[in-house]
Design goal:
Layout lengths: L1 E4 L8 E9 L7 H6 L11 E5 L6 E10 L6 H17 L4 E4 L8 H12 L15 E4 L4 H22 L7 H9 L5 E5 L1 H6 L3 H7 L7 E7 L6 E13 L8 H4 L7 H16 L3 E12 L11 E3 L5 E3 L7 H14 L4 E6 L3 H7 L4 E5 L2 H14 L3 E3 L4 H5 L8 E2 L7 H10 L7 E6 L5 E2 L10 E2 L4 H9 L1
Parallel strand pairs: 1-6, 2-4, 2-5, 5-6, 9-10, 9-13, 12-16, 13-17, 14-15
Antiparallel strand pairs: 3-4, 7-8, 8-10, 11-12, 14-17, 18-19
Helix pairs in contact: 2-3, 3-4, 4-9, 7-10, 9-15, 12-15
The structure holds ligand BES, manganese (II) ion and zinc ion.
Amino acid sequence: MEVKIVEDVKNIECDVLVINKFEKKQTDCDFVNKFLPEEFTGKNKETILINTLGQKLAKNILVVGFGEEKKLTNNTIRENTAIAIKKCGEIKAKKVAICYSTEINYGGPAVIGAKTSDYRFDKYKTKKDFHIEELYLSNVDNNLVNKAKIIANSLDLSRNLANEPAAYATPTKLAQISQNIEGIETQVYDYKKIEEMGMGAFLAVAKGSIEPPKFIHMKYVPQNPKKRIAIIGKGLCFDSGGLDLKPANSMLTMRDDMSGSAIVIGVMKAIAQLKPDVEVHGIIAACENMPGAGAYKPGDILTAMNGKTIEVDNTDAEGRLTLADALCYACNLKVDEVFDIATLTGACMVALGTVASGIMGNNEELIEKIIETGKTTGEKFWQLPMWQEYRDNMDSDIADMKNTGTRYGGASAAGMFLKEFVNDEVKWVHLDIAGTAFLEKPQGEYYSKGSTACGLKTLIKYITE
Ligand code: BES
Ligand code: MN
Ligand code: ZN
């Protein structure tokens, strides 16, 4: 979908012109006001399609209800635009124009809503899904539309990467993509260097696969950064469970276990174009968790980069092992804030479903900021507790800790495990996107099946605003 800004969308020929109606208020279009049935009051998310029968340049006018004017937020605009675009897709409209009330600054959320709604992963289908070809806007803030386009393109990149089969999105591929982002300097460490750096936990996970692991460090360094942050993405290109093999059904979507890293790549790409005054490090410990002949085993004792030892209780709790070394590495950079984003626990998915991501960390203020930012991007975060008892369950008789606790409270246990690898001086936030990163059926106004890249918009907004 190509987004174009024109002088006045009412002066172009198109298949559908989308306008909005607030409750208890006429629309900005006299033609629509004349023909709009009384039952259509403009309730939020309500739509009506009016055929202009050749009386207008637009073949159809789609009116979307925006609800009460005083309750309008960017979420309303983003969601309703997504609904409108879905309707346009249903009638195979190729050329769509949007013209909302002149007093609303709708460019940004309209572009995000439209592009997200139109997304399908149809790369491998010989018969492609229907896509809207052109989207016309007028009366919008150029800068905000450009920013939204950058974010939308990053969303596409991340979603594509997570949707790709594991045979395509290998650690080597992630490294290559990371090395080819304009404005980003990337270092990739191979097996030997990873070993030399002392990343015994990450390396253990990688050993069961013939795909070589890659430790990826992307850097965006502005002139005078006002702060320095690192974002770490879980990069399990495939999670079979390892020797503690997953049942077939649970393995089906495990190509999505690198969603966190796909998001980090997307965020870095957007940051390179949006150029905030913040130094940003994107870090990925990429590998596969496979039960090959070299695989790590239950009972093994691993030493992470900070010297702490871990007894392997379950080879399927591999994400936290890779993140442990990535967290040590990030803390060594002496940044002010570290974020990690990971499809970490099935337990988080059980607790919050596919609707909200889990959030934990060592700094209440930063957690709160991310939750609040999420409210404006439409990404939901729900805080889970980090109580000592969760950590007690991971005590080991033969090492500093085990990599799993009891059957219960698994998301919090994983959070407590990660905390062992974070310096107390650095503010740290952990995002568990196991439930939200990948959908088995469409959800809400704009997500199709598959990858959502949930968290990307919040991270970009937090970093750039
Ligand atoms: N990648 C999975 C978590 C996951 C589950 C993500 C479902 C998305 C959907 C993770 O590596 C895992 O296997 N976790 C185990 C941990 C357990 C062995 C302590 C889990 O959640 O079952
Ligand atoms: Mn696993
Ligand atoms: Zn995993």
